[in-house]
């Protein structure tokens, strides 16, 4: 390959070409302020040409239905063993109460995920328990969009019940699940996963389950847990796998796609000491998260146009900054968020709509409420 210059990579990206993994890694390794600034400007221009100037947000509520989990991911401060004093497992009435509260506060989406709890079964089977979770909410609020159950949870149900991924996803979809969170991706590199989450599904399984969801008409999101032990090459490898997965869904004309990409910077404050020592800090480095955000827009923007920062992990000021580094969405209100908060994040667990709107307006950009699948809700909120 000819030795392509830094400027030529950005120029080609602006002309609408996909950059290569080698070129992507080259961008991520830039440290000169002038180079980083050029990457930011390119990402911001691409954001504008690909999705325009309006920043979107969703009114949603998180329900983490249990923190009891059979796995021991090295970065997770959320999980508990059954019998621990602060272990919890919500009952149906509590789930309905949280959903009712969400609707009262204008939510259009419930995002539901939980620990992998082997006892979460009905009549000795896992799938009926998850279907009852869905039916408890959808029975009362049929119009709520249920964004629920990661690829890891799909694999867990399939493994416990001895059924296929297709059967699990089809059953959840038919019960009322509207889309699947692309979490449990961490970094799609098995070398990293062996250290970070050795009990989690491997890269190929994550990609397989998300691909099946798209084929079955279930849209998904995509994420990357960044800023721990992974290299720039591994970050780009992750983006490359997501881009290929999305291109395949487009080429095969699957009825569903990846709707968004979210950078999730590692928060290590409550992580086990061995991983904290290896990472060497407790809170994300904003500059690293912003550079990755910009490169992700350059790398994925042609096929995954919506990019979102995590205000829970970066704080609202950091997430607002990311809107100038390629992001076009500021995420959701969440109302209640335990997984990142228990890891020691400083962003908080709930955001009022007005707070999100003010953050967007501070950049002199218009804001617009959306639904989970990025359809506009109501008239545009501000000009």
Question: How does this model look, in words?
Answer:
The protein is 45% helix and 12% strand. It has helices at 6-14, 21-28, 33-51, 92-104, 126-140, 151-161, 165-175, 190-196, 203-215, 232-251, 273-279, 286-300, 311-322, 339-342, 353-361; strands at 55-58, 60-64, 109-113, 145-148, 177-180, 219-226, 258-265, 307-308, 329-332, 367-369. The strands form 2 sheets. Strands 2-3-4-5-6-7-8 form a 7-stranded parallel sheet. A 3-stranded parallel sheet has the order 9-1-10. The chain is globular, with a radius of gyration of 20 Å. The protein has 383 residues and is an alpha/beta fold.
Q: Provide the gyration radius in Å.
A: 20 Å
Largest sheet: spatial strand order: 2-3-4-5-6-7-8
State the low-pLDDT regions, or none. none
- Nearest-integer average pLDDT: 93
Kindly state the number of beta strands: 10
- The helix fraction, in percent, is 40-55%
Describe the largest sheet. 7 strands, parallel
Shape: globular
String of helices and strands: HHHEEHEHEHHEHHEHEHHEHEHHE
Look at the helices and sheets and give the structural class. Answer: alpha/beta
Strand content bin: 5-15%
Q: Tell me which oligomeric state these chains represent.
A: single chain
Q: Number of helical segments?
A: 15
Q: What is the terminal-to-terminal distance?
A: 47 Å
Give the SSE map.
Elements: H1 6-14, H2 21-28, H3 33-51, E1 55-58, E2 60-64, H4 92-104, E3 109-113, H5 126-140, E4 145-148, H6 151-161, H7 165-175, E5 177-180, H8 190-196, H9 203-215, E6 219-226, H10 232-251, E7 258-265, H11 273-279, H12 286-300, E8 307-308, H13 311-322, E9 329-332, H14 339-342, H15 353-361, E10 367-369
Parallel strand pairs: 1-9, 1-10, 2-3, 3-4, 4-5, 5-6, 6-7, 7-8
